[in-house]
Amino acid sequence: MLVLMASLSCNTPPQEAATAPDGADSAGHRENQVMIPAATCYAGQQGKDSFFLKTEVFPNVVTGSLSYDFYEKDRNRGTIEGTLKGDTLIADYTFTSEGKESVRQVAFLLGDSTATEGYGQMEEQDGKLVFKSLQELSFTQSVSLHKVPCEER
After folding, report:
1. Which residue of 31, 47, 100, 115 could cross-link 42, Cys pair, CB 3.0 to 4.6 Å?
2. What pLDDT does residue 12 have?
3. DSSP, residue by residue, 29-49
4. Cα separation of the two ends of the chain
5. Quick one: 112 exposed, middle or buried, by C-beta within 10 A (0-12, 13-18, 19+)?
6. Can you tell me the distance from the alpha carbon of 133 to that of 107, in angstroms, rounded to the nearest whole number?
7. In terms of Cα–Cα distance, which of 119, 109, 128 is closest to 55?
8. What is the pLDDT along the chain (153 residues), one digit of tens a residue?
9. What are phi and psi of 74, to 5 degrees?
10. 140 exposure class (CB count in 10 Å sphere: 0-12, 13-18, 19+)
11. Helix, strand or coil for residue 5?
12. What is the dihedral of CA 54, 57, 63, 67, to 10 degrees?
């Protein structure tokens, strides 16, 4: 019997050393990776109307805030969530105006120190306003917002 046990133990294949999965240390603990977005703020004014855009760029999404403060009219303030297509931000703008929440698509051409809003024909789809054609957006009849320090607003 002793010979049988000895022969079985010699025929046991070698076991590989256990390795920690990617992103884990040798004790098997996962590391939390905190992503700090690149935040950029832009502000502009036309007459007594003022505008503010804050973008926070993550690898797959752009979030932030957008406000239109029209003189002696109800202001629009809300959040954006979208994507960058080259240097163009296409986002959904969720905002409250006159006590009602709405969603519409916005577009901004982002330069080194400016953000210029794009305009185009819009249509309603699934309860929000969207551009009929992103290829036909115009960035020439717009107020340019200029890069400013990001301060709490």
Report:
1. 115
2. 41
3. PBPP-PPPPEEEEEEEEETTE
4. 82
5. exposed
6. 12
7. 109
8. 333 344 434 444 444 444 444 545 555 556 666 667 778 999 999 889 999 999 999 888 999 999 998 888 777 899 999 999 999 999 999 998 778 889 999 999 998 899 999 999 999 999 899 999 999 999 987 888 999 998 755
9. -65, 135
10. exposed
11. helix
12. 10
Give the gyration radius of the chain's Cα atoms: 27
- Which of 119, 143, 114, 117 lies closest to 131, judged by CA? 119
Instruction: Give SS3 for 8.
Output: helix
Q: What's the pTM value of the predicted model, to 2 decimals?
A: 0.73
Specify burial of residue 108 (Cβ count, 10 A radius: 0-12, 13-18, 19+): buried
Tokens of 139: 């960035």
Residue type, position 106, single letter:
V
Whether 145 contacts 53, CB under 8 Å: yes
Structure tokens that stand for 91 in this block: 């986002």
